[in-house]
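Running low. Invent one:
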Amino acid sequence: MPTLPAAKTVPGTPRKKAAAAGPKGGPGPKRLRKAPSAESSALETLQKVIVGSLEDDKAEGVVTLDLAGKATFCDRMVIATGLADRQISAMAEHLQEKLRDAGFKRVMVEGAGGSDWVLIDAGDIVVHLFKPEARAAYALEKMWGADLDEAV
């Protein structure tokens, strides 16, 4: 009896394979998001809470980058500078409290234990709090800013 050749296996987890395959149902008309005006107003509210909290805590150089269509992990990125570990930790703590009070429950904070960089994932907006030296070293504005679009 002849033997069949071994089937090719595609590396990756089922989740990665599904993401690579695209939406179910194959190619077809683009699906619109539900109520884009409701999503944009929620995004604007979230951004106002974040920027307001950072300004209240005397953050320096607050910048908001629009990443819609550029990144899949968020729609906007907010970058701000604090002068000391204690200020950055306080900004992260206050921001987390204000987001919770505004109804945004799932807020993840990384690096709040006293580092040069604290990341706050508020879902559609990711917030980076840096010390001045770390902000210059990572240069996220250059990586994700409008200059990138012009170079392409």
